[in-house]
Amino acid sequence: MRISVGKGSCGIAAGAAEVYDILREALGDTVTVTGCIGMCYLEPIVNVDGDTYVKVDKNAAGEIIKLVNNAENNAKANLIKQEDIALLNAQHRIALENCGVIEPENIDDYIKRDGYTAAKKCITELTPDLIIEQVKISNLGGRGGAGFPTWFKWNAAKNSLTADKKYIICNADEGDPGAFMDRAVIEGDPHAVIEGMLIGAYAIGASEGIVYVRAEYPLAIKRLDIALAQAREKGFLGENLFGSEFCFDIRIKAGAGAFVCGEETALIASLEGERGMPRLKPPFPAQKGYQGSPSNINNVETFANIPWILRNGGAAFSALGTEHSKGTKVFALTGKIAKGGLVEVPMGKTIRDVVYGVGGGIKDGKQFKAVQMGGPSGGCIPYELIDTEIDYKTLAATGAIMGSGGMVVMDESTCMVDMARFFLDFTCKESCGKCTHCRVGNKRLLEILERICAGDGVEGDIERLSELSNEIKDGSLCALGQTAPNPVLTTIRYFKNEYEDHISRKKCTARQCKPLLTFVIEPDKCIGCTLCIKKCPSAAISGELKTAHVIDQEKCIKCGECATVCKKNAITS
Amino acid sequence: MSCKCEQSCWVFSDPTINISKLEPCLIKYQDTKGALITILQQAQELYGYLSPELLAYIAHRTGVKPAKVFGVVTFYTQFRTKPTGKHLILLCQGTACHVNGSSAIEDAIKGYLKVNEGEISDDGLFTYNNVACLGCCSLSPVIMIGDKTYGNLTKESTVEVLKGIACAERAELKNEN
Predict the structure, then answer these.
(1) Percentage of the residues of chain A whose pLDDT score is greater than 70
(2) Do A270 and B37 touch (CB under 8 A)?
(3) How many CB atoms lie within 10 A of CB A557?
(4) Which fold has domain A107-317?
């Protein structure tokens, strides 16, 4: 019998650690840990010999113990529903093939699922050129966001003969707010990343690997650390691997928190102990990277795809997807989504397939308004374009980008001007300050947006935003500055009416921008219960018991507390 | 700055900073090129924050210019130059949390602790900081206290979490007395 508890960061936050402790105490060593299977909305999840139990609390854990002990039980109540299994089956898992299935802290579990066979085959049977050839056939693009062909980078690093030492670096500095693909992959299947790096290192001739991982991901760091130690013990890292001349080891470097370090040259500067500021390319990292040596940097998900590609052949990977984008892509599906979590779908599926087919549609039966892809560098795609295919080129044509995989769904209660303001606030804080356009220009964009959200927008603001946005794109050195105005440009492109509402009519239809709201009590709905009077922090509401209350607009601070307590929905804004 | 001695001449106005604790880390990394961030991370782990005096000391020991050390510290969000309360609350301001109402959670925390971001509450127990994303987007809105993550928060449940911690602290204090 095998019982596993999904203990990713999100599972633990939902209570998986307590459930694990209860089961472990009662059932002993048969209870193991897995990473995140991706169905975050069902956490905590327990698997008993292939049967999945969801939303397992302390009581349900007790029922599972009875079930295992063949006693009368009600464990069935928490058995996963067919409709949820269907959502899982609508996916195609390559990078996530082991996530939520294997025990991430046990290398034997990974080995049982053909782990390290690809690395062994590469090192003992294939030349670097043959490996790069397979990656080229697979047409794998960089999963960090840009989609740049992985084989091309590997080839450039391989051909760089200037130094005696080369580095392979894994970018796990997942700075995009609203994305957690890399965290889940490292927490759930760390050996896939290690094996991917090992194959890459052999292909380019690197002797040292570094994983640059966010300090905010303590569990990912811990699991990676354990995985590295186990890989060394088994002889998959270290000297003369698989009986060859090839020596390679990996170390972890905890990042210190800077979004711009997702940029290759900034990441290298950070690894060297400097402020993480990008520099001009060329020279490219493949020629002159970490410590001046040729270096190759790929994203976590890119590496996690590599063992599968080498096991099944590049052609099997490129058989999936569209003409320009091959394979699958992992998305973190969040926001106003009914069944959010981590999903992996083949390229070429539409946004509708992901949101409705895999994510179960919008939360609380509300209307889909937009989906934000690519985080602060991306854009908002409106309902009219929901049938857009997931493909680097088609997504770029909408003004958004594929990005690293953040997919934040928004409904009618999300204000698009406020979203643009939110992202600009983020990029302003994260701009490294090197380029004037990015440092000052984005600040000015933010000020205009703040003004609009505060109800002080003026005619000409939309044009000013557009003009300045385009100048920032042209005048910035790295992708952070070049893409920072994207959230502004796409919201203007698709939701111009909302900007106009804010500026001319001083209205926020999503009711998010508080300075634009006027709270009014509808007299025929109000029953005079005095709840709102008691709740109001500024004593702005007056009225006798059982008579309609009134809000004094002079005193009202627009906090909205009255509307949340009113049981009769008598307060409108 | 020309003083060549290792610890004796350095006086730290914060009595909780026991500089000898940092010694093993300094010995290990002081001559390693590019290890500044690692040293700063370990120092913050030990002392909770990086005081200006501590930064000057690290600069002295590593041979990196003080201005550069300060430049690195202020560049990265992880580093703090002021002390924090006993429990550091990280309030996620990622996109998913924003969409799902993190501003209301911030109001609740501010209202309960009666402090602004980065300040210590009167009882010395809490400081809250906004962070870009904790990567638990499906549980948004989320806060992290210590190594524990709390998800699907409302204003009320946030206050309950804080009250629970404060209560446990008071009980512990009572037991000690």
Answers:
(1) 100
(2) yes
(3) 12
(4) Rossmann fold (3.40.50)
